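Researcher: Go.
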Amino acid sequence: MSLDVTALRESFDLVVTRAPDLTRRFYALLFERYPQVIGLFGRSTDRQEQMLTRALVAVMDRLDDGVWLGETLGALGAKHIDYGVTEEMYPWVGDALIATLAEVAGDTWSPRVAKAWEEAYAAMAELMIEGARRAAAPSPGESTLTPSPPV
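Model: Structure:
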């Protein structure tokens, strides 16, 4: 799949300019739509907001670098296992992220921009999910069986 890098970067620059607290709005929308994820977070999302902002900026800067994206997003997906993130949650995050971007973009949100973000998020989520699956898979030679108690 070929991403519409121009649409992604231009729309991202616009929404960050309009809403420097974009990630705060994202988390508010995520919790409103999917309250079951609130328990994954502490009392404040300040740290997550900062990390998400940095991650989005880094991804936008490296949209043309498939190797970096694969390695970085794969590692990020593996790390999210420790946070309790499951595969079913990725579409929820995408829904809230795209809705937040569309809300902030307002009348500049077009079918082209929507499609670009939907495709980009799907690709990013898949890389993260693959990383999580690899991290959760047993190592070669590692038994997946529970040892029997001694007789």
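Model: The domain at 5-136 is CATH 1.10.490.10 (Globin-like).
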